[in-house]
Amino acid sequence: MEEDIRFIQGNEAVALGALYAGLGFYAGYPITPSTEVAEILAERLPKQGATFVQMEDEISSMCAIIGASLTGLKVMTATSGPGFSLMQEAIGYAVMAEVPSVVVNMQRGGPSTGLPTSIAQGDVMQARWGTHGDHSIIALTASTLQEAFEMTVQGFNLAETYRTPVVLLFDEVLAHMREKVTIPPPGELEVVERLRTSVPKGTNYHPYLTREDGRLPMSDFGGRHRYNVTGLVHDMWGFPSTDSKVAYDLLHHLVDKLENRADAMAHYKEYYLVDAENLLIAYGSPARSALHLVEERRKRGEKIGLLELQSLWPFPRRTVRKKCEGRRHVLVVEMNRGQIYQEVVKTVANPEKVYLSNRFDGTFISPRDIMQTLNVIEGRGV
Amino acid sequence: MVRDYIRQRFFPHIWCAGCGHGTVMSGIIRAVERLGLKKNEIVMVSGIGCSSRMSGYLDFHTMHTIHGRAIAFATGVKMGRPDLRVIVPMGDGDALAIGGNHLIHAARRNLDLTAIIMNNSIYGMTGGQFSPMTPFGEKGTTAPLGNIDHAFDIVELAKAAGASFVARTTTYHVQEIAAFIAKGIQHQGFSVIEVMSQCPTYYGRKNKLGSAVDMLQGYRAGTAPVGSKKAAETPGIVQRGIFVEEKRPEYSGEYRNLVYNCRRTSESGEK
C-alpha cells in the first residue's frame, strides 16, 4: 500500500491523530491558536457519523465531552490558555469521576489574553495544578508533527486505560507549523479501546470498584447498568460519602494510579546521551532548537546531549534523575519562567548543577539563545 | 411503585422538613410512570444545590455534576446518545445565575432536554443567600436589608431564548407538576418547566412567610391558570400553565440530518 504522506499543519496533525484513535465526540469553542482543530473536525466528524458541537464557551465544552464520554464515546476538546483556565473545574470533575477525556491546549503567551498568536509554555503548572484539590493528571507534549499525531493517539490510549483526563500540552509553534506527516495505516499504532464491565444484567455493578490490575471497567449510560456519577467523594457504588476512610482511599487511588506509574508510562527521547557531559532537557517545540544546537556542537566535538520529555505529568522523576547523573551541567530549555526547571531541581541529586535557558517574550527560543546560556554556564562569556 | 424508581441506599435524603423538592421528585416519577418509560432509557443530569441532589435518589442513569453546568453535561449525553431521554433538574441559582448562559444556549439550539427548574427564590444549600429569583425587596442572608436586584421571569426568559416548551406550576399544584413534566419529556425540543418550590427553612423564615403549609397556601392564592378570569383580573398574579408548546426543528435531529446528508453526498461521489 502506498504511504499516506501529507504536508499539514500541527492542528491538523492533532485532529487526524484524534480520528485515528477513534474520536467519537468533539465539543469546543473557537480560540487562537487551536481553532483549526475544531474547523477540521467540524467537517470530518459528521462524515463519519461522529459528533461535533460548538458550545457557548470552554466551560460547557469540557462539560459536554464528559457527558458524551459516559455514553461510551472517545471524546476531545481543544483550546488555549484562557479557555484552558475556564475548563479547570470540569477537568477536576473528570479526575474525580474518572471519566476518560482528552484536552488539547495549544499554549500561547499569558497570563490573561497575553500573546494570542505567540508561543509560550506557561501552562505546564496549570495543567498539573489548575483544578483544585489534590489529584494527579497526565500531560503529554511533542516537538514534531509526526510525534504530535502519535502523542494524540497515545493521549486517548492513556485516558481510556486510566480513566482520566489527559492534557495534550502542545504550543502555538507546533499548532501553526507545517511539516511532513506520515499517517500510519490503521493498526500500526496501538489504539486502546475502553474496558467495559462483563458484569451481567441483574448483578450488582460497582462503577468505582478497582480491579486487581488497578483498572475500573465502565458501563455506558443507556446500557444495562444504572449507576451514579458524582464529583463528591464517593464509594464503590458512586454514592456520596463523608467517611474519612472512603475519602482517604479515594484520594490515594486517584493519585497513585498515575504517580506510581510515572516512569513506566513515561514517553521521552534521548539524543547523544551516552557520553554527554552537558545535558539539555527540553520539551515541545523548543526541543527542536535544543536538538539543533546539540547536533551543531557535536560536529565540533562537544560532548552534549538532549533529553526530550514527551510526558510532563506525572513527572518521570526517576528517569530524569538517572539521566542527569554524572553530568557536568544540566540545562533546562523551556518557554516559561522555569516550570519544568523547578521540577528538575527538585528531582536531581545535584540541584546546583541545573540551569535554565528560557524565553517568555513570545519569540521562539533559538539555538543561539540556548548557546548563549551555555556559554555563561561554561564560563566562556556571552 | 414509587419505590421502583428510588435508590433507597441513598436515603435519608438531605431535604429539610417542609421542602418542596420531594414533591417535584414525586411528580417526575409519576410522569415517567405515566409515559411508561424504562428506567434504562432515562439519564438524569443535575448540577449543585439542594434540588440537584435528586439525581442520586432516582434509579436512572444519573450524573451529579458541578454548579451551573448540568445542561452542558446533558448536552454531551444527549448528543452522544440522542435516543435517551435526558432530564435536568436544577435550582434557580444553578439554572439562572451560574448556569444562565447554558440555559439560554440550549434553548436557542432547541436540544431535546427536559429542564426542570425548582424555583425556591433562594440559595438553600449554602444557607439562604438571595438568588436571581429572589423578588425585589425580599430578604436573604446576603440581602439582610432587602434585595435591590430584580428577579428574572423564567417563563419570559425561556420563551425569548427559544425554548419550544415552557410551563410553570407550583408544588401546591401536584397534578400539574406530573402533567407538565410528562408533556415536557414527550416534547421534541428544549422544555423548561418552572416549579415554584417552597423553602420554609431559609426563604420562608427570612421573609416571615410562615410554615411550609402557609407557603403552599400562598402558591394557591398567588397564582392562577394562564388565560383564567382570576389571572386577567388580578394585577401582579403569577400565571401557571403551558405558555409555549411549538414544534420546531430539534438540535440532535438536525445534526442527524446533517450526518445523513453529508454521507449521502460523499457516497454519490459529489464534493
Question: What would you say this structure looks like, in words?
Answer:
The complex is a heterodimer of chains A (382) and B (271). With 382 residues, chain A is of the alpha/beta class. Chain A folds into two domains: 180 residues, Thiamin diphosphate (ThDP)-binding fold, Pyr/PP domains (Rossmann fold); 109 residues, Rossmann fold (3-Layer(aba) Sandwich), CATH 3.40.50. Chain A is 37% helix and 21% strand. Chain A has twelve helices and 17 strands. Chain A has a seven-stranded mixed β-sheet, sandwiched between helices. Chain A has a five-stranded mixed β-sheet with strand order 12-14-13-16-17, with helices on both faces. In chain A, a hairpin with a 5-residue loop joins β6 and β7. The longest helix of chain A has 18 residues. Chain B is α/β, with parallel strands linked by helices. Chain B has a single domain, classed as Rossmann fold (3-Layer(aba) Sandwich), CATH 3.40.50. Chain B contains eleven helices and ten strands. In chain B, the strands form two sheets. Chain B has an eight-stranded mixed β-sheet with strand order 2-1-3-4-8-7-10-9, sandwiched between helices. In chain B, strands 5-6 form a two-stranded antiparallel sheet. In chain B, β1, α2 and β2 form a beta-alpha-beta unit. The longest helix of chain B is centred in the C-terminal third of the chain and has 17 residues. The mean pLDDT of chain B is 96. The chains are: A alpha/beta (382), B alpha/beta (271). The interface between A and B is large, with 44 and 41 residues. β11 of chain A pairs parallel with β2 of chain B.
